[in-house]
Specification:
Number of domains: 1
CATH architecture: Alpha-Beta Complex
Number of helices: 9
Distance between the termini: 39 Å
CATH superfamily: Spore Coat Polysaccharide Biosynthesis Protein SpsA, Chain A
Number of strands: 7
Strand order of the largest sheet: 3-2-1-4-6-5-7
Structural class: alpha/beta
Strand content: 15-25%
Length: 229
């Protein structure tokens, strides 16, 4: 039997308390039984804690990206990955990796899939009211500008068919990553599916700065709507 490959990308920066739990939760045994070969790739932004050591102790591949920023890490990861299906998952243990098999099924219909916190259930305290409202507003803006129907623009849980990765060219470095993924996918005509996911409280410091990052994302969406691909 010819196996198809799945690569799970985990961008990290000082995620020592959670990276091991995220890797352990990836349902590799189930995916293997379903006919997939699973790779896990950690792209680390020069952590100052033991994130890299913990990841390596789980036997996964680690790339160190000295230039800071989640989007920069994902650009490096996309250049390094060749797989039939690619997932991006935050390494802070907020998104359960157990949804990957369900997202794989949806990827048979859609070129890209997101895990939606706003359609799913959220652990008490996982999102402040201000952040929830901001996410709804940014998603509404994205849907108006790009004629799509997603429910959670800023989710950190994405899945792609492998060929899609080769057709998008990320240029941002910071927290505009998810907005840029949407703009690139829609401008190239890709439809985006979604599933509701459970969202857990983050362990450790929140890395977004709230209003400032929200305004940057809104500006990015507006500016890039009128730029050529």
């Amino acid at each position: 039997m010819k196996y198809k490959t799945v690569c799970v990308i985990l961008p990290t920066l000082n995620e020592e308390p959670t990276i091991g739990k995220v890797i352990d939760e990836i349902p590799r045994e189930q995916l293997t039984k379903e006919g997939y070969r699973v790779q896990v790739l950690v792209v680390d932004g020069v952590s100052t804690d033991r994130t890299i050591e913990v990841a390596k102790s789980r036997g996964v591949r680690v790339i160190v990206e000295p230039r800071r920023g989640k989007a920069r890490a994902m650009r490096t990861a996309f250049d390094a990955v060749k797989a039939d299906y690619v997932f991006m998952l935050d390494a802070d243990y907020t998104y359960p990796a157990t949804y990957i098999p369900e997202m794989l099924k949806l990827l048979q219909k859609y070129p890209a899939v997101i895990g939606s916190r706003l359609k799913g259930k959220r652990e008490d305290g996982s999102m402040r009211r201000f952040n929830t409202i901001g996410n709804y507003l940014l998603t509404w803006l994205a849907n108006i500008l790009y004629l799509t129907w997603i429910s959670d623009l800023c989710t950190g849980y994405w899945g792609f068919r492998g060929e899609v990765i080769g057709n998008i060219r990320l240029t941002s470095d910071g927290f505009q990553l998810e907005a840029e993924l949407l703009t690139q996918l829609r401008k190239k005509g890709y439809k985006i599916g979604e599933i509701p996911v459970y969202y857990r409280c983050r362990e450790g410091k929140v890395k977004l700065s709230g209003l400032k990052d929200g305004l940057r994302i809104a500006r990015f969406l507006i500016v890039h709507r009128f730029q050529a691909t």
